[in-house]
Amino acid sequence: MPEATPQSPSPARPSASASPAQTRAQARGRGLGFWLMVALAIIVVDQATKLYFDHALTYAQRINVLPVFDLTLVYNQGAAFSFLANQPGWQRWFFTALGLVAAVIISVILRRTAGRQPRLSLALAMILGGALGNVIDRVAYGHVIDFLLFYWKDWYYPAFNLADVGITCGAILLVLDELLRMRKPKAA
Question: Is 70 noted as a catalytic residue in this protein?
Fold first, then answer.
């Protein structure tokens, strides 16, 4: 008579020992690991594009792509809009520490929301990836590599990079998420 082999639970059904939070995360398939991979993907694409433009262009070189958009190579020692860029160097470590503290806080919040709030989790993952992408630049080079330049006639928006795009899109999504959550009727 053949021996009975124990049946493993179906991958579609969570195990009986899983917590409700784990069950919800498994059901949606987007736990903390997924959102950290989203952040990592942003970091990888950001760093690859920065390295490409840092080697393909000379400093301040511009390549016109559209009547309102150029590719360029500039270095930003400050923060957004070159804030504090003219300081003697302390800002490098200040913004590095600020980025790392933000990354820790975002990671804690992401751990708590992963699987339950996908829109919020995406926003946080985008901000996390962007923040760490710029932290890597500050630590490795002492400045952030920017290469996207939009302008209209004599008006120029400060050059930026894909990490900045991730931070900005994540912040917009964060506001949108909050507005949509405020519109939901509260459970009694």
Answer: no
Is the pLDDT score of 179 beyond 90?
Answer: yes
| Burial (CB count <10 Å: 0-12, 13-18, 19+), residue 98 | middle
Residue 177 bears catalytic tag: no
Task: Please state, in angstroms and as integers, the Cα–Cα distance from residue 147 to each residue in 52, 63, 65, 94, 165, following that order.
Answer: 10, 10, 12, 23, 12
Whole-angstrom distance, CA of residue 186 vs CA of residue 188: 6
Give me the helices (H) in the chain, please.
20-28, 32-56, 90-113, 118-141, 162-183
Q: How far is CA 90 from the centre of its chain?
A: 25
CA dihedral 135, 138, 141, 143 (to 10 degrees): 130
Structural contact between residues 121 and 114, judged by C-beta atoms closer than 8 angstroms: yes
Element (H, E) at 74: strand 69-76
pLDDT at residue 183 in the model: 85
| pLDDT digit string, tens, across residues 110-156 | 999 887 899 999 999 999 999 999 999 999 998 999 999 999 999 99
Q: Which among 46, 137, 146, 177 is annotated as catalytic?
A: 146
Model-wide pTM > 0.70: yes
CA atoms within 13 A on the CB side of 109: 17
Q: Which residue of the set 46, 70, 137, 164 is catalytic?
A: 164
The CA distance from 111 to 109, in Å, is 5
